[in-house]
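Continuing the series of single-chain predictions for the mutant panel. This is the parent chain; the variants come on the following pages.
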Amino acid sequence: MKQYLKIFARMRNRYLLGFDVIGLALIPSVAMMIRLEDIYIPDFFNTALFMYSVVMICLKLFAYYGTALYDQFWAYASAHEMMMLLIALFAGTALEIAVSYGLLYPFQLLPEDLPLSIPIVSALLTVLWITGSRVTIRIAFMLSHRGDVSEKRRRVIIVGAGVAGAMTAKELTRNMHLGIKPVGFVDDDRLKQGRHISGVPVCGTLADLPEVLGFMKANEVIIAMPAVAGKVVRDVVQSCRTARVPYKTIPALFDIIRGTAKVDQVRDVQLEDLLRRGIVTTETSSVMQMLAGRRVLVTGAGGSIGSELCRQIAAFRPAELILMGHGETSIFQILKELSESPVQETKITPLIADIRDRERMERVFVRLQPDIVFHAAAHKHVHLMQENIPEAVSNNILGTRNLVELAEKYNVPRFVMVSSDKAVNPTSVMGVTKRIAELVVQDVAKRSKKAFVTVRFGNVLGSRGSVVPLFKRQIAIGGPVTVTDPNVTRYFMTIPEAVQLILQAATMGEGGELFVLDMGEQIKVIDVARDLIRLSGYTEEDIGIKITGLLPGEKLFEELFYETDRVEATQHDKIMVCRTHYAADQEDTLSQASLLRRNVSTLIEESQQESISMVMGLFHKLVPQYNPTINGSASRPAQKTPASESALRVFAGQPVQKTPAGEAVPGRA
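Parent structure:
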């Protein structure tokens, strides 16, 4: 029986066409029998019925072909195929009624007058015939696959009964060979409680998950909420761990949108799922207006942030995308990736160059004439820069000064520098050099009146300098995972989310702004280590966690603002603008700027001579808040500063009391 069902389910459309023709030929006669309430039809109606059948067959097949009814594969019919069926039936019925009552009856084109009810009855019978055949094929396909799998299928609870959850349930039901049976949903939408979606009941809310797992005898959980915040995912994962039930998830919404994943691709839960936030909304029209048809230069294009900038910028159709980097391997990799993706008419130009080489940079600006510069190149590794101070100064400060001054000289309308939260109250060489780079960009922006801005944010997951790849390597070799301090906390953000917000902030800049991204709450690094261990299938006892102590330059926590910063909201709820002041202690703005430039030039010269003591003194002079002695147990506890409290109010949507422009508040030493 199953064999015959499979044959019927795979029926080709050419056979369906023949089946439809037979039905359409018989339907007028059946309609007449219904009208006469007798199976006997008088002979004088035969010619008229024959002619009516021929006309209707031609009209309806014309309508069905025109609406692509015979292009569908009915064994896999879903809402799309049903919609096409409805359109085809409507078109065929409309033609039958219009031709019958508008042409055949008024002009008496049939040999004998047929009853006026025949077209209506015929149309209804046609709907039943055409629909019935397609629905029967779909049912036959479902029945033919029921016996293909063992009865020992894994019973799955799907968390989230939205569009993604419904699609997941449908795919699992359709592909029974996977051995997975969806037995219930949990969802916080009260309107869905007690309902069935794709034949699967909604059994409760997310809070009811532990009880639902028990009474539904579930063997697994699938989290089907691609847009939900990481906290919700963590709560679901914790419930699954407590119940000792395996769990998986579908990809995050951003991965689905940009095409790197599909909504029905179930995978293991990853750290990014636990730490992701809600949906980041981007005003794509403003980003498109900024980038489309422009020549865009990205420095550090082979790095974590730089390469993602290139990927997202390419989607906005710039005329040319210039990939600048010092390392040939990383530039080759992003070049190859972009070359293999549909970047439409964008010209991709790879450029191996050192931003510290002023003459080389000048030739680049003259030859390529960029319209926008995204400056993501920097030395970011805290520990290495502590031991290589001249390199940190030359790359982070000299390189930035070269680029921003050349952007001013050659009338580049927009310049965006990527900065770090380590630039706030820095305790590391990397942090203080990034802070000085921020000041350099602000200085040139105020002098040139151009849209030169800085975007500051915290750690990103998966970057080369992040703890996450380190933890994964340590777990892979059997541990232990090394954490500097059990109380150390960090901000975390996914790379795609950070880049989305960088592009959005770039559209807002008018000149000199320092934009700060909403990083959410700081997370204990030791908790990240524990999550990674569990997600890798081990316990903390299997791998072990070793506390090594804070290294020079490290802090227990990170900050996003100075005490003197004035924090203001922007039109985007995850981006703030922070109005800051030069660190040099001068009253006059012009003298501040002049002193800043002189000190920066002296710093670069002393660094090139490797006069470390002079360099350290200039660090303090330029950034009085720089405190390299803070590490280990000496780290100060987190404090609520006026700027941080303003930021919390901004992100909470509350009004911010702004301090007067230029108000001086002593910085922390």
